[in-house]
Amino acid sequence: MRRIITVLALTLIFFLAEYLLVTVFGKIFIPNLILLLIIFLDLSMGIRYALLAAFLGGGIRDAYSTQFFGFHILTLMLTAYVTTILTRIIYQKGSWWSLLLLIFCINSILLLCQGALSLNLNSFPGFIRNIYLPEILMTLLFAGFVFNYLRKCVLRLYE
After folding, report:
1. What is the pTM of this model?
2. Distance of CA 116 to the CA centre of its chain
3. How does residue 121 score in pLDDT terms, banded at 50, 70 and 90?
């Protein structure tokens, strides 16, 4: 029960952090913190907790989004499943390069799924330039800080 409450609290905190970053910096250079949380939970606690965070994070994002309801839930839960599959192929424990490659691949899949569901093919170059590249770069830059913070939280949880 303590783990579930921790996952719920972390998901809410990460959504609020994303919201504050959007308020301060605008929509262009914002990392996908909820995706980083989902990847971390999948790697450390397993798919069940990652799916819980994906469902809750997607539901909160859907509540504040102009997309149809379930858009973010669908894409985040899909990436939770893809994280489990790609972890077996790409990720090696203790290797930051494999972790960054895993985050890059999963974030790319998420953005391409969201782009395919919400955009037409005429605006694809604008999507790559204005959404895909900035979010990938910022998510990779924030990954080290976020994973160190989450590692400390999980170590306190297991004490």
Report:
1. 0.90
2. 18
3. low
